[in-house]
Design a protein that fits this description.
Elements (H helix, E strand, L loop, with lengths): L1 H25 L49 E14 L3 E2 L5 E2 L3 E14 L4 E16 L10 E16 L1 E2 L5 E25 L2 E28 L2 E26 L4 E26 L4 E17 L25 E15 L2
Antiparallel strand pairs: 1-4, 1-13, 2-3, 4-5, 5-6, 6-8, 7-8, 8-9, 9-10, 10-11, 11-12, 12-13
Length: 348
């Protein structure tokens, strides 16, 4: 009986200590007395104001309209993830006379992430990343065609923005932003052909790598209009980027006797590149915090983009077997990426 009472008293003591500790954690720290002066209350506040991290995790709670007509903009953290299906302009055929021939575009898959935070003062930060990558065959455009050129193209962007929010008298709200942008556009080609070198038949691998690394400032805005569970968003921005162009080409020739010959070409340049970016989204709220979304987007980059030359090896001036003593090197071209997106958002 004495042991049982001891356990009961111990349990009550632990419960009281736990309650006191919890109460102490939720209290806002007060100013403290230092050796020489009284610290200000602002210096002793917690890292985040009360209410930022007290999310109740009920992601599928019913959607409520706080003002009787439409849901008020969310505050706190938000996150979106989308799959993208983007039509990207192909690299062109460029002859010795530097006359470029466009060869259309191809759809490639990618992923888009958007994460950020809005305070109760309608200010915040946002960061987004989009990466798309795909391959196609040039000079035959099919793997069954003898000796086609394989082209691997990619398009990637990273943005960090300072966000603001302003409610409009006509309805909806505007989110202006200003920030920095990084953009990468690259082409990699590979073609295996049979060539003649000094009267002997050789097996040649012709490779190209054209890259564009751009960094600069951007400014834009998002217009949001809510009607019940539906939300329509128009997003547009203009960026000015400093682009570092790099181009590399190589021929790796191997004879039947095992003799290898390697020829390489390098080129680089810099330019300022304007970028126009636009997006239209339509979302449907399935709960208080989660919405399904779909939309269209387009990014147009003016001249100043280095692209690979997709002429076959025997005609390509950047190949040792192309019949040209003067490689064309860099190709200053424009770039268009336009397509569709669909995904889900949390508290955006």
């Amino acid at each position: 009986m004495g042991l049982k009472n001891t356990f009961i008293i111990g349990a009550v003591f632990v419960s009281l200590v736990t309650i006191n500790l919890v109460d102490a954690q939720v209290e806002t720290p007060s100013p403290r007395f230092g050796p020489k002066s009284l610290e200000s209350a602002d210096a002793t506040r917690p890292f985040a104001t009360p209410g930022v991290f007290d999310y109740d995790t009920r992601a599928f709670a019913p959607l409520e309209f706080t003002n009787g007509k439409e849901k008020s903009p969310n505050t706190g953290f938000f996150f979106t993830i989308d799959r993208t299906y983007t039509s990207v302009s192909r690299a062109g055929h460029v002859g010795v006379a530097n006359n470029s021939i466009k060869t259309g575009s191809d759809y490639i898959w990618g992923t888009h992430y958007d994460i950020g935070y809005f305070s109760d003062d309608n200010e915040g930060w946002g960061m987004s990343y989009q990466g798309s990558n795909g391959i196609y065959f040039s000079n035959g455009q099919d793997v069954s065609v003898s000796q086609p050129m394989l082209v691997d193209m990619s398009f990637n962007t990273v943005e960090v923005n300072r966000l603001f929010r302003q409610t409009l008298s006509a309805g909806g709200y505007l989110e202006p932003y200003i920030g920095v942008r990084y953009q990468n556009i690259s082409d990699k080609t590979l073609e295996d052909t049979t060539q003649t070198l000094s009267g002997a038949i050789v097996f040649n691998r012709f490779k190209q790598n054209a890259t564009n690394d751009s960094f600069g400032l951007q400014a834009g805005g998002r217009y949001n209009q809510r009607r019940g569970r539906w939300k329509t968003v128009f997003d547009g921005c203009l960026a000015t980027l400093y682009n570092q162009q790099r181009y590399f080409a190589t021929d790796i020739a191997n004879s039947s006797a095992g003799v290898q010959s390697v020829t390489e070409t390098y080129a680089s340049d810099q330019s300022f590149v304007p970028v126009l970016d636009g997006q239209i989204e339509l979302t449907y709220g399935i709960s208080r915090d989660i919405s399904l979304r779909a939309g269209v987007q387009a990014t147009y980059t003016w001249n100043g983009i280095a692209r690979a030359n997709t002429l076959t090896t025997s005609l390509n001036p950047n190949s040792a077997f192309g019949g040209s003593s003067t490689p064309t090197g860099l190709i200053d071209d424009s770039h268009l990426a336009a397509g569709f997106l669909f995904g889900v958002e949390w508290r955006r």
